[in-house]
Amino acid sequence: MPDAREIAGYFLLTAIQVAVIALILRPMESLWPVEHWQDRRSTVIDRSYTLIKVFGVLPLFTYAVLAPLGNLLGGGSDDPAGIVSVQGLVPWLGQHSVLLFLVYYAIQDFTYYVIHRLQHAIPWWWALHSLHHSQRQVSCWTNDRDHYLDDLLEALIVAGVAVVIGVSPVEYALIVLSGELLQNLSHANVRLRFGPLLDKFVVDPRYHRLHHMRVDPGRPTLHACNYALVFPLWDIVFGTALYGEAVRPTGVGDPMVDADNRHGIIGQQLYALKRFRASFFSRAGWRPGDVAFNTNYEPVSVRDFDLHALEESQVPLVADAHGLKSTERHNGAGS
Questions:
Q1: Burial of residue 72 (number of CB atoms within 10 Å: 0-12, 13-18, 19+)
Q2: Which of 1, 50, 96, 302 has its Cβ near the most Cβ atoms within 10 Å?
Q3: CA distances from 205 to 25, 99, 131, 169, 248 (A)
Q4: Confidence at residue 89, expressed as pLDDT on a 0 to 100 scale
Q5: Rg of the Cα trace of the chain?
Q6: Taking 60 as the threshold, does the pLDDT of residue 328 lie above it?
Q7: What's the sign of the alpha-carbon dihedral 140, 116, 175, 54?
């Protein structure tokens, strides 16, 4: 089990992370914003999500779940030997701690990429992940705006991979915290680009903001891009990288998901859970593809309705008594 010094070190790194967000990234947003907002009230809830996650959820999971699991499977902070240990496969990496850590980091980041693709592809998982994308004011605090069940599923997979390849709880915490800080930067509402070379190696704010774009009328699949969290390499290899596009408004067109912005944390968690429940127990919830949710919180494939009419009207899909889905245009409503 980790000792008090390890836990204290974790909270010190967490405090540094929050200080960087508040004292560096947040002022940068005021000085060089991509989008100019009249007020930032909708970003306040994301700040609460961040503080809850980094000071509560992450340390609890890392030291109460990952550490015992690693010990159970034969690893631990003193002997990080996993089921398919990287050190076991490539013994000389054990003599190069920095390089070994980078290998761990790359494997974990690829795992996040795969998870992120699934969060968008599987309707029941999108029902949860859509909470993250419902924010129209994407800022340096937005990274941790998630449903906690979504966080749990993601963390179990990532931590499971970490245990299997031999990552210790201390290394896991460092990977997660450094990744979190880079993602705080990539979500920041700031005019910052790493340049035509570096932006192929590390995700920058412009790159990730395109991932949060609303649907383009002329190119409805354009938003299916830039899933990588730290290394764009995965997007480049799998054909999902998008460069050179102008910055676009962020958020979602589905009124049932956009409605998250009218609720606090508890309300957002509950309504996303309703979408998840209706999706998980329906066939449509397991068919890969883009969906919107009707007034019964059920997923409806974008092939079955006019996506743009839905976005412009901001009136949810209606499920009638016969199970048919339709859109209604609210006079004067806009996106």
A1: exposed
A2: 50
A3: 11, 27, 20, 29, 13
A4: 63
A5: 21
A6: no
A7: positive
Q: Is residue 304 part of a domain?
A: no
Q: Reduced to 3 DSSP states, what percent helix, strand and coil does the chain have, rounded to the nearest 5? A: 60, 5, 35
How is 141-201 classified by DSSP, letter by letter? TGGG---HHHHHHHHHHHHHHHHHHT--HHHHHHHHHHHHHHHHHHHS-S----HHHHTTT
Measured CA to CA, the distance from residue 204 to residue 182 in angstroms comes to 9
Mark residue 310 as left, alpha or beta (left: phi above 0; alpha: psi -120 to 50; beta: remaining).
alpha
Q: How far apart are CA 239 and CA 228, in angstroms?
A: 11
Domain annotation covers residue 71: yes
DSSP 55-104: IIIHHHHIIIIIHHHHHHTT--SS----TT-HHHHSGGGGG-HHHHHHHH
261-281 pLDDT, tens per residue? 999 999 999 999 999 999 999
* 229, part of any domain: yes
Residue with tokens 């002997």: 79
Q: Can you give the residue range of the structural domain that contains 72? A: 4-238
Q: How confident is the model at residue 312, as a pLDDT?
A: 85
Tokens of 158: 């990532």
Number of domain units in the chain: 1
**Predicted confidence (pLDDT) per residue in 218-229, tens digit:** 888 889 999 999
Stated length of the chain: 335
- State the average pLDDT for the chain: 86
